[in-house]
Each structure stands twice: as structure tokens, then as C-alpha cells.
């Protein structure tokens, strides 16, 4: 029989539970009180690198240039635009600092109508990813009376500019189960249900094709999806593209003409691009545009009037390929560094020869390029400013291949400061990974990370199985009954750093969040001796209990990621690695676990129960902290500076263990 002695923590309405979480916070604050000045120093240091009055690169849509900007001391973005040219008068659409003035937490985004006259403001003030929608008339500056509460998506405008579509959660499981249409001026209680997903393992959403001709309703789970379409200019019954099929994912777009473009893994582990006539888009009519390739993973495609831009991954590195519709001619955009991240940017315009893409590496700040697909000329529109004495030439990035215990070749990206680094096994190190859902972790830049590198830390990202850095098989080999491969890869990468002189055997720290927090829990049980300390953020550590409870999020539509506990073999496999269930009476390294009281993705009680059990069973005197943000959810603190305070706390936790005080 499986007994859960800490199940009582599963009630955020119980004052005893709140008192318990507050007591854990107080304990951590007391034990780290001597680092408060250092935390403040780290916070100011990281903040000082940020250009506070910064702005995004504007994108042009019709006759408007849209952008976001920040002002000095401002926590939140300001959405703005100019008409005709960037020399025109600025129009403030939404000021996030005003929106969040009275809120302990704010996450918001916007959606502008096609005629540019209305803007939907979609905001969450709890951190649970429940959004309320209000509408502003940009011609008058007045707010309309329309109010829609507790949606789980953006507002997708119909092309008549009189209505929009959105998805809402099931009140129990929180999976998105309905798509509704709101007509301006109508009470939200009267909004029509356009689509309802009755299968409890599926989660639905709504979007718009690049051509703006069709509304697409998609529904899926981690292994399979299907989609419907309807005209964007008038409401109607959604029409099926192709029925759902186990282990087949597909997504739909339209670039004008008579065909849909469909990105799918049907008979294509690395995905392929097919087209199908709008008049009959069933699978029998799918024909290859880009076939499956064994050595190249097809990430995504963006469409323009005369070109398509293809984002791919080969041997774990991104490529962008430009294909001309007229004659099928193609070429590739070149990148130079050994480890980097590149991808297509936001390209809302259709009739253009310019594609925007982003580029970054562990030494190169986030950069935005505009690339002319006809002339092949590229223009650096912006490189993320890093204030102070930052010089990218002071840092070195490497990409190495680690042979895992079963012979698989695992890429790892490494960065360090050149004048601090000695390859003699004496350096402190930090290794990070995620390894789930097919999400790839890119070798990208972080200005905050400079505070680690400048103090001699070697930082590594392990591109472990469970992501898709090395293709579709890489994901399949790190999920369900292969999940332990993610843990093994991470441990083997950690040992490689130590065995090859990059990091000292007693100075390696590890971190991961959400499903990456599950990774942290797993490696702590499997190989605690490898790590000096571990930071597990919003950690999914109670796999079995969560997968058994069909009433909470991250359950039924994730059974094909983790396993269905109603199937004995899958239940036993999950039980064999679930961090909470495998805590043992033994020594563990220093641990900092974090969570958010309002987290709807990984409920706060998972890290809370895990830490409670560790406290009872561990045999060492190492530090064990649980920090609960009582005002936030899965993403932690809101606001660009408040988040840095949480990072400063984590860095101080690590530096204090290493004896670094400034």
C-alpha cells in the first residue's frame, strides 16, 4: 500500500497549511539572513546591466509600427505604436505599470483588431493563468463595457472586427475544453460555444492562419492532435481537417491559394510539411512539400507571399532556410558560433520580402535581424544592450558531445569567463536542463548569468533526451517508459564536466524548473553524491499522486507524456523514479526548492510535501529550504526587477555554500 503522510498539505484554504508555508519561508529567511547584503548586491548588479528605458524592435503591420517599451523603474511593458513612420507621434495603447499599480502580481498581453481600432487587454493578477479580458477603443481611449473572465488563451479577432474567439478551462481539471465567440456589446454569459472538446485527455485552443482567412481550432495531448477550420470573416460550424490518430501531431496554416499547409509527424519522426486542398484536407490528400529527413528536425515554417522560411535543427543546432515558391529554389542563412540559438521571429506581415529572426549564444546577447529574402541582405536591428563593462570577448562558449551510459551522444553547451577558467578540476560549476515535452533548451544568453561567470562559475546546459534537440527520436527516448534516460543523461553530463577537468567534484550545482524540477528530484535520489547543491523550481516531484488525480491539471491529457497509473506497468515505472516516492534515508546535498501558492501547473503542495519528507528522512546536515511565493504562480514573481530578486536569492544560496561572499 502506498501511504502519503503529507497529503494534508493539499489544501490551500486551510490556515494550518498557510502557516506551515509561511514558517518555511521564515526559516529560509533566518538561515540566509547573513546573505541579505550580498543578495542586494547581486540584485543591483544584475539590474545595473539592464537598460531600463528600453524598447523592442518595432514590427510593421499595415500602416502601423507596433512595439513595447520599458521606462526607468518600470516593472511592466508599455504597448505602443506609431502610424505611418517611426517619426510619427507615439500612441500609448496599454501602460502595464498603470495596470499593475495596485496588484501584487501581473501578467498581461494584448490583441489588436484587424482594423487597428480596438485592443483586447488580457490580464492575470494571480499567477494561475486565468485571464480576464477587457476591450479598449483606440479611437476614443475609452474602455468598452465588455468583460470576459477566466479565459485561458489570447483573443483571436474575426476579420469583421466585431467579435473574437477564446478558450476557457473546465472548472475542475482546468484543461481548455471550450472555444467561445464573443460579440462586442454582448454580455459574456451569452457567448456562443463554437467548439467543445469532450475527451478529457485533450486540451483545445484557437488561432488564426497567416493569410487571416481561416480560424483554426486545435485540440490535442502530448502525443496526438487534430484541428478544425472555419472562415475568419463570418461565424460558422468548424470543419474537420483530419481526425485524431494516436502518435500523430499536426498543425495547420494557410498562405493564400487553394491549399492548407500542415506540419506533421505522421510517418515522419522528424516532422514533414504537407499540403492539402482546402476543399478536402483529409489525410488521403496530404502531399509532401518538405519530406521527413532522418538527420534534420523540422521545427516550424512561416509563410509569406513569395517565400517560406523554414526553421530546422541539425545535430542539435538551428538552421533557417529560405524557399522561393515560384521555382522551389532555396538557400540557408549562415551562423558562425559553435553553440548558439536562432529562430524565426514574429512576422505578422504577409506581403513582404523581409523575414525577422533572432540570434543569441551563451556569449552573444539576444539579437534581432531583418533579412531580405530576395537580396539576401541582413540588418542587425537590435542587440540586447548589456550595460556596464560587459565585453563578449571575455567569455568562451563550447559545444561538447558526451557519451551517455547507453552509448547515445548527448550535446552539452558550456560557457565560462576566459580569465577565470582553469581546466584543472578546481572550478565551481552549474549545470541546467529540462528534458520533457520535446522542448529544446537553447544555448542562449543571460545577462544575469554574468554574475556567476564573473565569479568563476562554469555554466553548462545539457541537451538531454526528452527534448527535441536531436530530433523526434530524442523526445521519444526520454518520455513515458524511457523517462529515466533524461536523468541518466543529466548525471552522465555532470560527471563528464568533473572527469574532464571543467568542474571540481565537490563544487557542482544543478538546477531545473517544473518538469526540470522533476529532473532535479530524480538525480537527487539517483546520484546525490555528484552534486554540492540543487535548486528545484516549481518542481513536479509527486508524479504518481498527480497522475492518479484526474481532477487536477497536468493529468489526463499528460498520461502519454508520463504514463497512465491505471495501467500497472506504467504505474510501477512512474513509481520507480517519482522523486517524492523515492526519498531515502541517506545523505543529500544542499537543496533549495521553490514554488508558488497559486501555481495551476505544478501545485504548490508537490514541492512542499517533498521537502517535508526530505526533512524527515535525510541523514546529513546540509541546508534544505522551501520558498513559496505567496502572491505568484508557476512563473514566479512578476515584473522584470522582482524576478531578479528571486534569482539573487538563488545565486546567494549557491555562493554562500562555496564561501563566496561578494
Total number of helices = 12
How is the biggest beta sheet arranged?
Answer: 8 strands, mixed
Coarse shape: globular
CATH topology of the domain at 1-49 and 506-542 and 578-661: Rossmann fold
Name its key features.
Rossmann fold, serine protease, Pept_S9A_N, single chain, eight-stranded mixed β-sheet, Peptidase_S9_cat, 36 strands, 662 residues, alpha+beta, four-stranded antiparallel β-sheet
Walk me through this protein's architecture.
Helix content is 19%, strand content 33%. The protein has 662 residues and is α+β, with helices and mostly antiparallel strands. The model has no long low-confidence stretch (mean pLDDT 94).
List the topology elements:
Elements: H1 15-31, H2 36-48, E1 59-61, E2 64-69, E3 78-83, E4 91-95, H3 96-99, E5 107-112, E6 118-124, E7 131-137, E8 143-151, E9 156-157, E10 163-169, E11 176-183, E12 192-196, E13 203-208, E14 214-220, E15 225-231, E16 239-242, E17 250-254, E18 259-264, E19 272-277, E20 287-290, E21 296-303, E22 307-314, E23 317-324, E24 330-333, E25 340-344, E26 354-361, E27 367-372, E28 378-383, E29 395-403, E30 409-417, E31 429-432, H4 450-453, E32 458-462, H5 472-476, H6 484-499, E33 508-513, H7 515-526, E34 533-537, H8 543-548, H9 559-562, H10 568-577, E35 590-596, H11 605-617, E36 624-629, H12 640-658
Helix pairs in contact: 2-12, 6-7
Concise description?
With 662 residues, this protein is an alpha+beta fold. Among the domains are: 1-49 and 506-542 and 578-661, Rossmann fold, CATH 3.40.50.1820; 391-501, Rossmann fold, CATH 3.40.50.
Amino acid at each position: 500500500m502506498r501511504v502519503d503522510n503529507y497529503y494534508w498539505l493539499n489544501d490551500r484554504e486551510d490556515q494550518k497549511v498557510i502557516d506551515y508555508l509561511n514558517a518555511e519561508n521564515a526559516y529560509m529567511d533566518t538561515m540566509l539572513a547573513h546573505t541579505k547584503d550580498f543578495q542586494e548586491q547581486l540584485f543591483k548588479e544584475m539590474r545595473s546591466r539592464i537598460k531600463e528605458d528600453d524598447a523592442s524592435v518595432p514590427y510593421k503591420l499595415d500602416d502601423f509600427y507596433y512595439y513595447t517599451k520599458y521606462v526607468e523603474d518600470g516593472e511592466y511593458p508599455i504597448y505602443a505604436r506609431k502610424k505611418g513612420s517611426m517619426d510619427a507621434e507615439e500612441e500609448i495603447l496599454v501602460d502595464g505599470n498603470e495596470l499593475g499599480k495596485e496588484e501584487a502580481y501581473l501578467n498581461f498581453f494584448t490583441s489588436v483588431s484587424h482594423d487597428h481600432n480596438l485592443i483586447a487587454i488580457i490580464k492575470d493578477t494571480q499567477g494561475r493563468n486565468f485571464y480576464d479580458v477587457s476591450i479598449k477603443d483606440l479611437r476614443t481611449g475609452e474602455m468598452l463595457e465588455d468583460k470576459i473572465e477566466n479565459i485561458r488563451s489570447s483573443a483571436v479577432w474575426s476579420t469583421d472586427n466585431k467579435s473574437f474567439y477564446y478558450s476557457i478551462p473546465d472548472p475542475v481539471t482546468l484543461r481548455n475544453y471550450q472555444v467561445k465567440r464573443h460579440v462586442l456589446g454582448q454580455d459574456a454569459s451569452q457567448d456562443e460555444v463554437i467548439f467543445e472538446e469532450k475527451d478529457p485527455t485533450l486540451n483545445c485552443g484557437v488561432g488564426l492562419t497567416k493569410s487571416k482567412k481561416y480560424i483554426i481550432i486545435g485540440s490535442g495531448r502530448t502525443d496526438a492532435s487534430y484541428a478544425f477550420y472555419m472562415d475568419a470573416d463570418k461565424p460558422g460550424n468548424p470543419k474537420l481537417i483530419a481526425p485524431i490518430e494516436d502518435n500523430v501531431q499536426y498543425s495547420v496554416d494557410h498562405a493564400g491559394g487553394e491549399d492548407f499547409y500542415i506540419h506533421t509527424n505522421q510517418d515522419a519522426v522528424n516532422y514533414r510539411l504537407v499540403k492539402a486542398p482546402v476543399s478536402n484536407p483529409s489525410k488521403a490528400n496530404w502531399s509532401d512539400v518538405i519530406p521527413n529527413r532522418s538527420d534534420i528536425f523540422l521545427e516550424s515554417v512561416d509563410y509569406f507571399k513569395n517565400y517560406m522560411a523554414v526553421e530546422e535543427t541539425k545535430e542539435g543546432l538551428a538552421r533557417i532556410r529560405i524557399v522561393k515558391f515560384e521555382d522551389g529554389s532555396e538557400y540557408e542563412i549562415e551562423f558562425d558560433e559553435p553553440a548558439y540559438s536562432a529562430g524565426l521571429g514574429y512576422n505578422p506581415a504577409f506581403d513582404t520580402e523581409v523575414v525577422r529572426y533572432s540570434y543569441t549564444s551563451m556569449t552573444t546577447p539576444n539579437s534581432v535581424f531583418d533579412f531580405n529574402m530576395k537580396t539576401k541582405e541582413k540588418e542587425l536591428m537590435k542587440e540586447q544592450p548589456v550595460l556596464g563593462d560587459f565585453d563578449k570577448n571575455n567569455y568562451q562558449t563550447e559545444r561538447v558531445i558526451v557519451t551517455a551510459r547507453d552509448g547515445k551522444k548527448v550535446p552539452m553547451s558550456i560557457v565560462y569567463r576566459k580569465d577565470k577558467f582553469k581546466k584543472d578540476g578546481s572550478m565551481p560549476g552549474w549545470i541546467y536542463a529540462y528534458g520533457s515535452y520535446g522542448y529544446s533548451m537553447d544555448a542562449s544568453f543571460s545577462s544575469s548569468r554574468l554574475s556567476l561567470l564573473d565569479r568563476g562559475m562554469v555554466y553548462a546546459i545539457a541537451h538531454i533526451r526528452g527534448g527535441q534537440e536531436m530530433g523526434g527520436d530524442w523526445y521519444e527516448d526520454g518520455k513515458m517508459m524511457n523517462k529515466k534516460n533524461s536523468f541518466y543523461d543529466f548525471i552522465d553530463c555532470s560527471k563528464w564536466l568533473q572527469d574532464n577537468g571543467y568542474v571540481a567534484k565537490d563544487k557542482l550545482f544543478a538546477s531545473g524548473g517544473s518538469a526540470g524540477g522533476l529532473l532535479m528530484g530524480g538525480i537527487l535520489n539517483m546520484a546525490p553524491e555528484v552534486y554540492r547543491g540543487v535548486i528545484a523550481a516549481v518542481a513536479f516531484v509527486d508524479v504518481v499522486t498527480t497522475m492518479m488525480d484526474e481532477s487536477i491539471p497536468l493529468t489526463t491529457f499528460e498520461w502519454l507524456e508520463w504514463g497512465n497509473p491505471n495501467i500497472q506497468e506504467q504505474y510501477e515505472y512512474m513509481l520507480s523514479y517519482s522523486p517524492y516516492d523515492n526519498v531515502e534515508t541517506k545523505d543529500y546535498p544542499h537543496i533549495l526548492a521553490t514554488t508558488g501558492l497559486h501555481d495551476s501547473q505544478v501545485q504548490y503542495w508537490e514541492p512542499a510535501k517533498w521537502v517535508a519528507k526530505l526533512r524527515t528522512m535525510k541523514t546529513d546536515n546540509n541546508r534544505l529550504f522551501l520558498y513559496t511565493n505567496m502572491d505568484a504562480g508557476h512563473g514566479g514573481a512578476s515584473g522584470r526587477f522582482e524576478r531578479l530578486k528571486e534569482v539573487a536569492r538563488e545565486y546567494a544560496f549557491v555562493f554562500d555554500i562555496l564561501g563566496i561572499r561578494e
